[in-house]
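Per-record layout

source: Pocillopora damicornis
name: SUI1 domain-containing protein
length: 145
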Amino acid sequence: MPKRNNRVPKESDRERRPPELTLASFLSGSLASQTSVVSEGASSADQLDFVGTRSTSKEEEKTNETIGFAVKRTKKGKIPISYENRAKGKKVTVVSNVTGDPGILLQELKKKIGAGGVVRGETVEIQGDHQVLVEKFLTGHPCLK
């Protein structure tokens, strides 16, 4: 087994930034007027515009998560979730009528459920029988139309 490198970084290797500048303070813009982080070619007005673009509220963050996909209900008003048996006894939960980017929906469902899945056209397939979990996720999510 190879030996680990226990070398302590030298002062010249470390990042040179003010000690009061953290990522949170940089993104919030509270230190924008005190420190100059942007390259030499940018003016102070450009710097303030760049720093101020990341301040969003919690409600805006929730709506940003849902941007990109929507799930349309069926004509009878039901949620389009079905369950199929595949070859070799595999079970698959299928969410159909997905508009926008179904890849985002797939990522969120995979995180929530903890199972694999795939996007096929306008449908999202999740491995296993997860109808109840998918239904709870979609009813609690503002993506359902």
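summary: Residues 35-42, 44-57 have pLDDT under 50 and may be disordered. DSSP finds five helices and six strands in the chain.
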